[in-house]
Every structure is written in C-alpha cells, then in structure tokens.
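Record filed here:
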Amino acid sequence: MVLVTPENFRIGLVQMSCSPEPEANLAKAVERTREAAARGAQIVCLQELFRSEYFCRQGEKHELFNLAETIPGPSTEQLSKLAKELGIVVVASVFEKRAPGLYHNTAVVIDADGSQAGLYRKMHIPEDPLFHEKFYFTPGDTGFKAFDTKFGRIAALVCWDQWYPESARLAALAGANVIFYPTAIGWQPPEKAEYGEAQYDAWRTAMRAHAIANGVYVAGVNRVGMEGKPPAEIEFWGGSFVADPFGRVAHYASHSEEEILIQDCSIAKIEETRRNWPFLRDRRIDAYGPITSRFLV
C-alpha cells in the first residue's frame, strides 16, 4: 500500500515545565496534547524526557535508572491510547530501558491509529557540566530514519543531535518532511548574563540552518522553568519554534512560560523551496567520502 501524504497538515509543540512527580508530568503532557489537538494539531511533539525533571543534571546516581521504562511501557501505552482516541500522531521522548543495564534516550513516533510507527535512539550523547548523559544513555543504533504516519513522513531526532548537520541531512534524505527535535537545554545561571543570549541564538540558528540546507520543516520543542538548586541548577530556556523550509520562523515560544505552539505546514512549500534552492540536486556525493573520517589532518 502506498501512503498518501496530505498536502497540508498542522503540527503542535508542547513546551512545559516538569515536577519531581513522573505521573503528574505524564498527566500534564496528556492534557496539553489534548489542547493541541483541540486547536487542530495533527502531529504533536513533546519535549525531551517529558515524564521527569532533567535528571542528568544530578550527576551519576544509579538510583535514577529507576525512572526508565520499557517500550511498550506506561508512557507509550497511555499515549498510544490517546493518539488513537484523538486521531493524531504523537512524538514522545522516553528514558528507555531496553534491557537490564542498557538504557537509551529514545523518541517514539506513535501513529494516529495508536500503533508505533517507529523509534529513534539518540545517537549523539553529550557530557557537559550539569548534562551528564554519557552515564545514563547508551548511544543509539537506529541510524537516522524517517517514518510514515497518517499526516506525513517525519523524523524525530533528540536534543544534542540538533548541532550536527549530518543527522539532519540523513533524515531529510530518508524523506522526512518535518524533523522534530525534542529538547532539554537551558542556561546555567552563573553564565547566563555573559553567554545566555549567544547560546540561545546559536541553538535556533543551527536548526534554522538545517531547515534551509535541506528544504524541510524543523521543529525544536524545549522545556521551560528552573530545575534543581545551586550548584546543580538549570534554567531551561523554552523558546520552542518551527522553521519553514527556508528557515523562516513565525513565532518563538516564551523563554519562561508554558506554551502550546501551533504551525501549519505545506508539502507545496517544500517543493517550491527545493525547486528554487536545489541543494539536494547539486550535492557532490562522489566527493564526500572523507566525511566519515574523525579528522583529516
């Protein structure tokens, strides 16, 4: 069966704060997803690790592995029922327990009939002050894929993947019309005054560049709010947005408030942009072999 992609579709991004209670966060995510669907969203994306506070800021604590869940599991089962009830696609970021001692940061794509359209395991794992992800997450092994859904072919990458043009390019080459980036990124208060504006600008500029270079929609959905206490404190900067295939952004979400961002998307706009700026046509695939080297000097 050939899947027919709608010419026009609407996406929703759920930007929210998180409490220490996983069940409360899941309930809030369900409520916000309902609100997005009520506003016409057909594909709804939740932020990275929405079911908990961003626990990686707490350092290396073995007990925090108890937050992980299987797929299928409590979050995906509830969201699958919700997707089927509302007739929407849901992109959900889960702390996945794949096997004893084997954990991933995983984005699950749930189709409008409640089935799992696919999953992506975060490939690029950071290790920065207050972002101690290498302790918790095994690097993904899924590659960069796109998944067919009722409302279009989409890719779901995760947070640190935002900085890598290779991952966006491969997702676009896999046929994605939208690349979603569930995200948990923020300011460390001691450095916000000096670096905060530049950090946020770099973040949005990198994703807008992915949209332009690949002629696709790019959606970054971040969390918001202050989590933790000094010295393990992060102010998540929100600022969620959708860039169209030429990098234009109609609206940036608040830096401090919860928000549901809605964006209409058009396959015709992708086609028009790629016809006028044919970057995919002009790629020199015969000359890119060295890209797989760690360094060339």
Observations:
- The helical segments are 22-38, 74-86, 133-136, 165-173, 189-214, 267-276.
- The radius of gyration is 18 Å.
